[in-house]
Design goal:
This protein has about 250 residues and is α+β, with helices and mostly antiparallel strands. About 25% of the residues lie in helices and about 20% in strands. The chain folds into two domains: about 80 residues, Ubiquitin-like (UB roll) (Roll), CATH 3.10.20; about 140 residues, no CATH class. It has a five-stranded mixed beta sheet, covered by helices on one side. A two-stranded antiparallel sheet has the order 3-7. Strands 8-9 form a two-stranded antiparallel sheet. A hairpin with a 4-residue loop joins strand 4 and strand 5. The longest helix is centred in the last third of the chain and has 16 residues. The chain is globular.
Length: about 250
């Protein structure tokens, strides 16, 4: 099956001001997205050699502020150059081997979270072993463990599994408990958590928006837990979501 063309549901488009016929990227404007969010996401999939500003289709400056982002066309104005990054993304597909799951990872994530971290839905039958509508999810995919090792991402982890042989990728700090349906959207990068905007939940596709979670923030109880996912893995996942959904035409 060919990859999903995510440009079909966009309602905001990015251009260079001196080339208004070439789409550099775009997105679906979900609830909770702000002008400042657009500026920060642009810096993920575009490389700039100088400072830049955004203008809307009415030639008005778009401030770097918390005002709600609106659908429409946006134009980058800069004295430097703009290059759309060719950074390779780590797409999760059913054809990829999932790696070796370890029971300690599942147990640690379940006991820490006991609810879908994104929707807040409680695992009410957890005390009876009723986890069937919840999924323990690796934030950095287990299928890419070799890249994890090659890039020394294990250095992000401060709480490794009790068994060294389980590998740092199976740390509770790389895990999150999600409802089974939410896990599908998370794995597909249709939603992500932005740790640099107070852990805001960002939806990148209209079907993810159906859950009315876009623009919410993770609750403070979860964030105060010293065993929670480290910011680096959340930031990595958010970066992948931006690249997959926003880059290019």
């Amino acid at each position: 099956m060919p990859p999903l063309n995510r440009s079909h549901w966009r309602d905001a488009y990015i251009y260079a001001s001196d080339d208004r016929s070439t789409v550099l990227g775009g997105l679906w404007v979900a609830e909770g997205l702000t002008n400042a969010n657009l500026y920060s996401m642009l810096q993920i999939f575009c490389l700039f050699t100088d400072t830049f500003d955004l203008y809307d289709s009415c030639e008005q400056l778009v401030e770097r502020d918390g005002q709600p982002l609106k659908p429409g066309d946006y134009y980058i104005v800069t004295a430097g150059s703009i290059t759309v990054t060719d950074e390779v993304t780590q797409i999760r597909t059913p054809s990829l081997p999932s790696g070796t799951r370890v029971a300690s990872f599942t147990d640690a994530v379940r006991q820490r979270d006991r609810r879908c971290v994104i929707t807040g839905r409680q695992a009410r039958l957890a005390h009876l072993g009723g986890w069937d509508t919840f999924e323990t999810t690796h934030i950095f995919p287990l299928a890419y463990e070799q890249q994890w090792l090659h890039s020394n991402y294990g250095d992000w982890i401060t709480i490794p599994p009790a068994k060294v042989s389980d590998g740092t990728i199976n740390s509770v700090q790389n895990g999150i408990l999600l409802g089974s349906n939410i896990r599908c959207f998370f794995d597909a990068y249709k939603l992500a958590i932005d740790p640099d905007d107070n852990y805001k939940i960002v939806c990148f596709a209209p079907d993810a928006g159906d859950f009315k979670i876009s623009g919410r923030h993770l609750d403070q109880t979860f964030l105060d837990n010293p065993h929670r996912p480290v910011d680096q893995v959340l930031r990595w996942h958010f970066r992948q979501a931006v690249l997959v959904n926003m880059r290019g035409a």
